[in-house]
Amino acid sequence: MPISPFRFAATLLHRLDGARADLALYPGRSGSVDVVLREGSAAALLQFSWSDRLTH
Fold it and tell me: Which of 6, 12, 23, 37 is at a distance of 20 to 30 A from 44, taking alpha carbons?
């Protein structure tokens, strides 16, 4: 099911007040996401990526 980048980010950040997501989508159905959540002097970073490329 296709999903827009806006909807993907909104779903990912649901209930994470103050969080920011940077999305990169590439041709070939691959991409990456960086999510940053800051509170005071503390910060949390979640990074993940995906690829449609088969590995053997």
Answer: 6
H helices of the chain, where?
5-12
The radius of gyration of the chain from alpha carbons, rounded to an integer in Å, stands at 13
What is the pTM (predicted TM-score) of this model? 0.70
In 3-state terms, what secondary structure has residue 12? helix
Say how far apart CA 33 and CA 42 lie, in whole Å. 20
* Contact present, 33 and 26 (Cβ < 8 Å): no
Contact between 5 and 31 (Cβ < 8 Å): no
Query: Which pLDDT tens digits describe the chain residue by residue (56 residues)?
Result: 778 888 988 998 999 988 999 999 888 888 999 999 999 999 999 999 999 876 55
